[in-house]
Amino acid sequence: MPSAARLPGLWPRPRVRTRRDALPGLHLALGATILWVGLLVVLPLLALAIRPWQDGAAPMLAALHDRRMLAALELSFGSAALAALVNLPLGLVLAWSLVRTRLPGRRIVDAVIDLPFALPTAVTGITLATLYGPHGWLGAPLARLGIRVAFTPLGIMLALAFVGLPFVVRTLEPVLRDLPPELEDAAMMLGAQRRQIVARVLLPPLLPALATGFGLAFARGIGEYGSVIFIAGNQPFRSEIAPLLVVIRLQEFDYAGATSVGFVLLLAAFLSLVVISALRRRLSRGLGGGETA
C-alpha cells in the first residue's frame, strides 16, 4: 500500500498567506489617484499634442518656419541652458555649506533658498527689474561699467537662474548627507591632494544629482513666464521668449501658431527630462560598477 507521503492528494496543501497592504482601501485610492492625474495632467498634455495637427500638417509646418518663433525658441532654450549651468556650481556651494559647515544663520539661508518656490513669479520679475533697471540699486552701477542687465538676454538668464537655483540645491542636499565624510579623511590619509579628493572622491557620487538638478532647472526655465517678461524687454528677435510668444499668438487669434510653440516647448521639456534621466542612470551604473570593481 503506498504511503501517504507518496499521495499528495491525501493531504491538503498549506494555505499561502497573502500580504495585506497596510493602507486600507489602497486599490480604490490608487484608482482614484490615477484617474485624477489622468484628468489633471495627461489629458491636457494630450490635447496640446493633438491640437496643432487637427487642421493638417501644413499650418503646423508653416508655423515652425516662422523666423520670429525660431528666434524666441532659441533665446528660451539658450537662456535656460546657461542659467542651469550657472546654477550647478552655485547650488553645489550652497548645498555643501548647508550640509557640511556650521553656516551662521543656516536656517535663514535654508528658508531663503526656497523663496522662489513661494514667491509669485510676477513679483520676482518686478523685483529683478527694479534692482537691475537703468536706475536700480544694482543696475545703475553696472550701467556705468557698460553692463546692461534689464531688458537684455542677460536679464532673462538672471531671472531663470533665480527660479532654477532651488532645484539644484534641493537635489544635491540628500546626496551630500548620505556621503560619509570618512571618505575624504581616508583619501587625505592616503596622501591625496584637495583637487584629487574633489575630482575622484566627491564629484563621482554627485554627478547623477548634478545631472538631475540641471535637467529640472532647464525644464523649468524653458517654460518660465512671469519672472521673465518684466525684465526681458520683450523685443522680437532680441529679448522675446517663447512663452510670451504663445500669449501674443493667442491675442492675435493665431491658435495654430500658439499651439505649435506650446507643442515645441512641451516636446523639448519632455525630451530634456528623458535625456537627463538616461544620463543619470548611466552615471549611477558607472558609479556602481566602479565601486564593485
What is the N-to-C order of secondary-structure elements (H for helix, E for strand)?
HHHHHHHHHHHHH
CATH superfamily membership, which one?
MetI-like
Largest sheet entry: none
Average predicted confidence as pLDDT = 82
How much of the sequence is in beta strands?
under 5%
Structural class: mainly alpha
Polypeptide structure, described:
The protein is mainly alpha-helical. It has a single domain, classed as MetI-like fold. The protein is 73% helix and 0% strand. The chain has helices at residues 26-50, 57-64, 67-100, 106-113, 115-118, 121-132, 139-144, 153-178, 182-189, 194-222, 226-232, 242-251, 255-292. α2 (57-64) packs across α13 (255-292) and α3 (67-100) packs across α10 (194-222). The longest helix is centred in the last third of the chain and has 38 residues, at 255-292. It is globular and about 65 Å long. The model has no long low-confidence stretch (mean pLDDT 82).
Characteristics of this structure?
13 helices, globular, single chain, 293 residues, mainly alpha
Structure, briefly:
Residues 69-276 form the ABC transmembrane type-1 domain. The protein is mainly α.
Q: Topology of this structure?
A:
Layout lengths: L25 H25 L6 H8 L2 H34 L5 H8 L1 H4 L2 H12 L6 H6 L8 H26 L3 H8 L4 H29 L3 H7 L9 H10 L3 H38 L1
Helix pairs in contact: 2-13, 3-8, 3-10, 6-11, 8-10, 8-11, 9-10, 10-13, 12-13
Membrane topology: Multi-pass membrane protein
Subunit structure: The complex is composed of two ATP-binding proteins (CysA), two transmembrane proteins (CysT and CysW) and a solute-binding protein (CysP).
Pfam families: BPD_transp_1 (PF00528)
